[in-house]
Write a structure and sequence with these properties.
This protein is of the alpha+beta class. The protein has two domains: 88-163, Alpha-Beta Plaits (2-Layer Sandwich), CATH 3.30.70.2110; 237-574, DD-peptidase/beta-lactamase superfamily (Beta-lactamase, 3-Layer(aba) Sandwich), CATH 3.40.710. It is 33% helix and 22% strand. It is built from 19 helices and 26 strands. The strands form nine sheets. A five-stranded antiparallel sheet has the order 15-14-26-25-24, sandwiched between helices. Strands 1, 10, 11 and 12 form a four-stranded antiparallel sheet that branches. The chain has a four-stranded mixed sheet with strand order 7-3-2-13, with no helix packed on it. Strand 17 (333-336) and strand 18 form a beta hairpin. It comes from Nocardioides ginsengisegetis. The chain crosses the membrane at residues 21-43. Residues 278-300 are annotated as: Disordered. GO terms for molecular function: penicillin binding.
């Protein structure tokens, strides 16, 4: 028989893991520690610096992208583009994906896009960023080619976005007026003056990304761009092109330093052409010297020479001091205080009418006539013609010229100013002054913008704001026109080469000593010019041509006169202006 075993006492439950109270205490301690950590973190996030931590969290998965506005076009008077925008792209990078290949990618992009290697490398390695601009305003074909080649090389993290490229379809035509854009800002001309209007306002997009890709249903906020507004100018693109070509040939043939030419609508004051030479191609301004990138016609000042006689003698006629037939005895030399005044041509005593003084361009005859002015009277007339103040056509950097203050005038000052020395003008300013005679004695302010526009400086300009005021009487302007016709007479005048076959033309030559920049004194060089209008008895256009420092020995009549004739002839034909078929002036030149 089996011997029975007595039952063994059972071990209490839980004795292996400790008492229940101990386990509970330990659990509470762990929970309390975890909650303390979470609580501290919550206080830190919400109480101490909530904004920075929220921004950090958002930056991990959000991208902000600019949406460029379409820049407004700059148009000529007929709606032809002088500056417009064509398809282009910006190349962008996601540094989160480009950091590992940054050196190789930077070298690749530098070779393809000519961007700076070190700044590109920095962008490709930008810590914490998900969006960096690599290049702006890249032509569409180039941008897509670069992106395709980059992917072929195995580079990741590059992409393209819409970014219109500025284009100047006519190249150098009106470039001195239109200006150009830099990488991120306008640098010259109307592009800079009216940037706020042209640029519009960029928009923006904000969206979530994950793994380098946009999350389709993630956060997305878009502010649409406000497109720029077009700027309509008074420039005639075809006439501007022709004027520039004539001016270039004239300066080169004369071996001059530079030149300017202005074509102005007599009645409206609209500037149909404002040409400079040398100029530049607005599509590649970096290829031209800095000195050629501005507008000489508004910023450069010079002494106008004998064209000034038109203003002096018409003012005398208006004041009732002389007429176109006033007789003057003109000696070969005129002693005035400590210096003598000479004419450009040697002569003994000659007897000239006032018309002869203009036809022969006599400095001495002009000074003798100007002696009839009251003190300060010539100054007042010249201010009324617009000298000594800006034309305010809307060009940054326009010079007001130099008209000495009335209180500083001496007899010698008036003598020199009377025939165009000791004062300075810009080309647009002088064209507007001569146009006053063409317009029957009424000055009309020149305009470069059609309608109305506001510069970035807050100045309102344009044809809607044209100003007029009478400077001399219609009678005085008419007499001056008849006198100016004699300048082109093949026998008595000094500029027969400025004639336009079939049309009556009134004009005036100018030759003036030039002030050297280095010495601030007359340096032995000269500037020559010709200003005039046609048809003389029913003016439609005023044209003014200036050539600086011609080295072929020519003067205003032989250098600038033929250029005037070509430009005026083209303008008259282009606008179908018929000849008046009236008889030109035959005012006596001598007595």
């Amino acid at each position: 028989m089996r011997q029975s075993r007595s039952p063994q006492p059972r071990r209490p439950r839980g004795s292996r893991r400790g008492a229940p109270q101990l386990r509970l205490r330990f659990g509470f301690i762990v929970i309390a520690m975890v909650l303390s950590v979470f609580g501290a973190r919550l206080v830190q996030l919400q109480g101490i610096d909530p904004n920075s931590y929220a921004a950090m969290a958002a930056a991990e998965g959000l991208v902000n992208v600019d949406l460029p506005a379409q820049r407004g076009d700059i148009l000529d008077r007929n709606g032809e583009p002088l500056a417009d925008s064509v398809a282009g792209y910006m190349l962008v990078a996601d540094p989160h994906m480009t950091t590992d290949q940054a050196p190789e990618m930077a070298k690749f992009l530098t070779n393809r896009l000519h961007v700076d290697y070190f700044s590109t490398l920095k962008k490709l390695r930008a810590e914490g960023s998900r969006f960096e601009y690599i290049a702006r305003r890249v032509p569409a074909t180039l941008a897509t080619d670069v992106l395709t080649a980059a992917r072929h090389e195995g580079f990741e993290g590059l992409d393209i976005r819409r970014d219109p490229v500025r284009d100047y379809p006519a190249g150098d035509v009106a470039a001195n007026i239109i200006g150009f854009l830099g990488t991120d800002e306008p640098l010259a001309g109307l592009e800079r003056t009216f940037n706020a209007q042209l640029a519009g306002k960029d928009g923006s997009a904000r969206y979530e990304v994950g793994g380098g890709n946009r999350i389709p249903l993630g956060e997305s906020t878009i502010t649409a761009p406000v497109e720029g507004r077009d700027l309509h100018t008074t420039i005639d693109r075809d006439l501007q092109w022709y004027t520039q070509r004539v001016l270039r040939q004239t300066v080169e043939d004369a071996r001059g330093d530079s030149g300017m030419a202005v074509v102005m609508d007599t009645l409206t004051g609209e500037l149909l052409s404002v040409a400079d030479y040398p100029t530049f191609d607005a599509n590649s301004p970096q290829e031209s010297p800095k000195a050629d990138l501005g507008s000489r016609s508004t910023s450069d000042v010079y002494e106008p020479g004998s064209v000034e006689k038109v203003l002096t003698l018409s003012s005398l006629i208006d004041a009732g001091k002389v007429t176109d037939r006033t007789r003057l005895k003109v000696p070969g030399e005129l002693d005035r205080e400590d210096r003598a005044i000479h004419d450009w041509f040697p002569h003994d005593l000659i007897r000239l009418t006032l018309a002869g003084v203009i036809a022969k361009s006599s400095n001495i005859g002009t000074v003798l006539a100007a002696d009839k002015f009251r003190t300060g009277q010539l100054y007042d007339y010249l201010r009324s013609f617009g000298l000594g103040e800006r034309t305010d056509v809307g060009m940054r950097g326009e010079s007001p010229g130099i008209l000495p203050a009335k209180a500083l005038w001496t007899h010698q000052t008036q003598d020199r100013i009377a025939f165009g020395q000791s004062l300075s003008v810009n080309a647009v300013q002088m064209a507007a002054a001569v146009n006053t005679i063409a317009n029957g004695g009424v000055r009309v302010s020149p305009s470069l913008v059609r309608g109305s526009a506001t510069t970035d400086d807050g100045q309102v300009v344009g044809t809607d704001h044209t100003r007029t005021h009478r400077v001399v009487s219609e009678r005085a302007a008419h007499q001056m026109m008849l006198m100016m016709e004699r300048v082109l007479d093949p026998e008595d005048g000094v500029a027969p080469g400025a004639a336009v076959p079939g049309y009556r033309v009134a004009g005036k030559t100018g030759t003036a000593q030039a002030v050297g920049e280095a010495c601030g004194c007359y340096d032995g060089t000269f500037n020559v010019s010709f200003a005039g209008f046609a048809p003389a008895d029913k003016p439609r256009f005023t044209v003014y041509v200036v050539v600086k420092n011609p080295r072929n020995g020519g003067g205003g009549g032989s250098v600038a006169g033929p250029a005037f004739a070509k430009i005026m002839s083209y303008a008259l034909r282009r606008y179908a202006v018929p000849p008046t078929e009236t008889t030109p002036s035959h005012l006596p030149v001598e007595w």
